[in-house]
Structure formats: structure tokens, C-alpha cells
């Protein structure tokens, strides 16, 4: 049963519901003793039937509460009241990355590439920090990333997937996660390490840049099987504005075998940032129709040396052309000064009845 505004759960007063999912409901709540507003994540009552659930819940919550990182939501408390297991977390003003992507999709838009690299970098920092403690998120996805009003990307639900995974594996035989973002090894229910999170982060980056996830199917199991068996489509085949270097980075992040992926989330984020910058410098721009060539296209000047060469040869175009004109002007001026000086010398020599040396001036009679 959902909690209503004004109800209490242990020491917390419910202010308003924030959201609801298959595993838990989230509420905005208030802790009077500390005068603190928090987010309460209350687990579904069904998980109380697992006798080991509470121990796993406490153990993981205690591990996550030790975290102190600007891109990981802070956990303050965990408890259970009358069979309701909940976790009190930092309350963040803002929405999720999923909310942002849905809003942009309504207008046929995508996140700017620079914003994608910032979000990936901040999420990667959070993941690498957690991985250094031996904690794997297991459910990296846009709805678990908050975009705060102060401009931070904050990862939520660390440890929740692990706490719930044993129950779900017992029930379904599949590792915990969300099918669209689940690594192949999670889908097979085998032992995973931090590289499963790297795969999920790669899927998230793919979606932000391409506008959709790589696999779409009618059922969750069909999506899981696609991650296991099907080749990942090149992101540029979904969005032609994605350059070849970014293509390669994402394809490596989404390799089927964990050992073929990047070694850390930070390494992936740095590679993606460099790739997007390199693609921009390389001129991975939309194609243009070449005048007079029917039915053919060619890259813009920024993308093709063959097209750019004539412009580069013309000194009048761009900063390089200006520099060339300045050099030419200086040479002409110097030559003019030399000619004038030699002419003056010739006149002086004539006045002394001497023959001046040969040069570009008229010689006096008899010379």
C-alpha cells in the first residue's frame, strides 16, 4: 500500500510521493530530529518473504553509506518498520536523465555531444570510485542518474541491485539488471565484475548520442538474448552525425567479452571525450552536393582534403591568406626601398663624373 502525505514511517514524515517502480517506491520525507529533507526508497513488501533479504540489505546499505563522492547519492539511514524495508538518502532537486531524454525525444532532439561527454565523465567517476571499493552497481541506466539543478550527474541505487539480485535469481534464473542496459554476462546469469557496469555505461552513451538503445524487441527476454548473441549496430548507422572515432570507442565499450572492453569506466569516458573532439576537428559534418555532379555527394571542405585544398592554396581565404598577403607586401616594400637607394647613389656618382655600378637605373653618358 502506498504511503500518503502526512503518514509516518519510523522517524520520517512522508511529504509527497516522488516515483514508483517494480522494486520500490520513492517518497520525499522529512526527519524532524535533524530538520532534514530526505528521499525514502521503500522496498516492495514481497521481498520480506526472503529470510536473507534483511541481512543483505543491511550489509549493502552499510557499504554504500561509507561513500563520499559528489556524483553518488549519499545514504543516511536504513531500517525496517512493520516489514517495510527502506533506505533514507540525500534528497536531490532535479529530474532523472531518463526524464531529460524523453523530453528531448518529444521534440525530435538529442543531447548535445559535449553534454553527453560531461554526463558520461561524471557517471564514470562515480562508478570508478565505487569499483575501487569492490562495489558493482549492476543496474546503470538513465533512470538511475539524477541531473541536479546545480549541474551535477548523480548516480543512485548503488547496491540495491545486488541486494535484490539473489531473490530475483532464485525466482527467474537471470542476473539483476534492466534488459536494455544489461551486459551479456548478466543476461547469462554468470559471475560479473566491474566491466558489466562499463558495458551498461556504454549502452547509456550509445542512447544519448544515437537517440535510442541498440536493441529493441517485443519482450525483455528477446532483448537479453540480443545482448548475448547479436552484433551491436554501429552507432553511426543509427545517427549519421556520430563520427568514426566515437563509433570505435562505443563498439569497444560494448564488446561481448568483458576482457575486450575498456579496463575502467574512467578510461571509457576519457576515450569518448577525445573521440568526439577528434571527430569534430576532423570535420565529421553532413555531406553536401557537389555542384555539377548529379547523384553524387562529397564531404564538406572540413572533412575532405581534396575539397579543402583549393581554399588552402588561395592566400585571400582565412587567417592563413592574410598572413601570406602581409609577407608579400613586406617583400615588395623592401625591394622598392633598395631601388630608390641605388637610384640616389647613381645620381650622386654622376655628379662626381664617376660611373656608378650597373643596376636598374639609367647610366650616365660614357659609362
Mind explaining what this structure looks like?
This protein has 367 residues and is of the alpha+beta class. The protein is built from twelve helices and eleven strands. It has helices at 53-65, 97-106, 113-132, 160-172, 184-187, 195-210, 220-229, 235-238, 244-253, 265-281, 305-313, 318-351, and strands at 8-9, 12-20, 24-31, 36-43, 75-81, 84-90, 94-96, 145-148, 153-155, 288-289, 297-298. A six-stranded antiparallel sheet has the order 1-2-3-4-6-5, covered by helices on one side. Strands 7-8-9 form a three-stranded antiparallel sheet. β8 and β9 form a beta hairpin. The longest helix has 34 residues, at 318-351. It is globular, with a radius of gyration of 33 Å.
